[in-house]
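[Meeting: bench + compute handoff]

Bench side (C.D.) handed over the final construct sequence. Compute side (W.E.) agreed to return the predicted structure before the next meeting so the bench team could plan truncations. Sequence as handed over:
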Amino acid sequence: MTRLGFGGFIAPHHPIGEHPTLQLQRDLELAQHLDRLGFDEFWCGEHHSTGWEMIASPELFLAAAGERTHRIKLGTGVVSLPYHHPFNVAQRIVQLDHMTRGRVILGTGPGALPSDAHMLGIDPMVQRDRQDEALGVIQRLLRGEPRFTHESDWFTLRDARLQLLPLQEDLPLAVASMVSPSGMTLAGKYGTGVLSIGSMSTAGLQALPTQWSFAEDAAARNGQTVDRKNWRIVMSWHIAETREQARQEAKNGLFRWHNEYTVGTLMRPGSEPFKSPDHAVEEMTDVGGASVIGTPDDLVAAVRGMMDVTGGFGTVIGFAHDWANREATLRSWDLVARYVIPEINGMLDGYRESQRHVIENRESFDRAGAAVMSKIMENERAVAALSETSDAKAAMPAHHAPDLRPEAESKEDASGG
């Protein structure tokens, strides 16, 4: 059975009002929490506006996270390539790979927020082409190709070559994919992994069944290969012991997040404000599985459903948010680690088979009591001690006397033998 990876992703999405320094510290604590729980990956985004998404440098953040964690992979989710000189991106990610002892994944994108591109004077119409061009250059630099020159209308390289290569022999790359085919096509062109962020929306979910074919087609055209194990699907969830508890914990934060951020700040086309927190929960738990507000069993069913819809992928990434308070949020991730991950990956199958075997083959083990008794009967002192124990039991009131007889003898007496 192929193991499904599990990870967490912070954009982040933090409501305005909390101390920014404490928000950053709590995001780092979440990375530590997921590392302790055994999650496989932790992703961090790059944004420069909106007030809610306040991490400007995923590399800086992940460097700090790398010092606080031990085994979890650390991914940039994502570096917006049109905002940076490709040589500097390559150098920073190589340094981060060494500082984290080879735990880095370089995720890239064209830039998600139009307000970011506007501040930097970048025409949104050129962002995807610039990501394409930059990714090709970065890939050549990370491979340690001989010195090369590259002339562009937005950056220049002359006799360029990295003086330090990644610690990982083949540093993993991933491309962000929303609803359009561009992300998947770019991943196929360069043979990278994919981070499907659009899967959190209804439109994104509807596009998933055909998305992977775009990557495969582009890979075939460019002499590359793509592997579903490098496809990461982002989902949103809040998990509690009961559905009612999960809904009560998440509804107010979910209501604020959607109405104040998604509708009020981003003004996403087609997004309408929720009428109430209860309405928010009802709507968000009825989008086909991208958002789960419920129990571990609900999330297990949603993940399995997502695997059926997509035809298979390598890692499911939980989108971190502030729908619930801090304690409930950390407990949600804990429940995923304790119950969802082992269930999805078949870690409990051996336990269940062993339990069934013992129950269904009880007659094979009943001789154990008889074997113990036979050894006792071979020893005079042991027989005497057993007799004294039986006499003591007989002198006790019936409701106080422990049953010290072998199981086989007790069954015989109970039947009147």
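W.E. noted at the follow-up: Residues 70 and 229 are 23 Å apart (CA to CA). C.D. will use this when planning the next construct.
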